[in-house]
């Protein structure tokens, strides 16, 4: 039987899906491991350029003609760089991190530039790496491996201690601090915490919230998970270090500026602290993420820190897992899609001028 129904009037028909508009995107500070994830997140018709170089005043011209750029925490987006970006046609900055203290948001707002970040990703990546540093410091893993590579199998100087039954202090108990605390609870440690607001999940683990002075004074292991704000800058200063136990372990996988590095050097020179694990450093810009093996290290504080056998320094890699980077890239792609659709969301720091 023939179907003699009339075709739907034009106003009732569903509009045909329009292909996404082609967008010029350039990403800075892209590692070899990150490149395939970024490329897959921005398929055709987007045109993506992945660069290893850092965005600053000397390299801002490379963004010319690109409406959208993707940046990292080591890129310098001060007022002058933002002005050059705007003059070159950039309209949207998508930061591939939660931190954004490298971006002059007021200048971006004045220039009509949009700014978005990644407000969250796998907290386990950073928390697990913080524990990797803590355990490596405590059990002298790097020293042991260096020795055995030279066929020296003595145990002298390799003695660590059980963490079970000791006290873990967590400064900053958001998602990452909570993940760190869960692992500490698994080790059977007493939990002390400090934050502007208690985390009920941490309280259920048995964490006692106390002033930071008590965290420093009573903890055997202290891990930093605070954001870098004016009020948290150098939260670990001379006074805090003086309160810490002589055999305490200090770990920082958050932001370098939380620790007064010069005061830390002086503390270590005095023979205090059992070990320190640093994945971040307050003057890391221009050093971390680069090969400086043939250069003269002009940062005397960093050079001195790395001479201590009980100090481990890694290159801001705590977040660097396939899971976390995958989430970061996916969120960044979503931020670009929101911009192209004229939307703002929880990741928007500055709405672009329209």
UniProtKB/TrEMBL annotation:
Residues 1-21 are annotated as: Disordered. One of its GO terms (molecular function) is NAD binding. Residues 132-318 form the D-isomer specific 2-hydroxyacid dehydrogenase NAD-binding domain. InterPro entries: D-isomer_2_OHA_DH_cat_dom (IPR006139), D-isomer_DH_CS (IPR029753), D-isomer_DH_CS1 (IPR029752), D-isomer_DH_NAD-bd (IPR006140), D-LDH-like (IPR058205), NAD(P)-bd_dom_sf (IPR036291). Pfam families: 2-Hacid_dh, 2-Hacid_dh_C. PROSITE patterns: D_2_HYDROXYACID_DH_1, D_2_HYDROXYACID_DH_3. The keyword Lyase does not apply. Keywords: NAD, Oxidoreductase. Residues 47-347 form the D-isomer specific 2-hydroxyacid dehydrogenase catalytic domain. The keyword Oxidoreductase applies. PANTHER family: 2-HYDROXYACID DEHYDROGENASE HOMOLOG 1-RELATED. Belongs to the D-isomer specific 2-hydroxyacid dehydrogenase family. This is 2-hydroxyacid dehydrogenase.
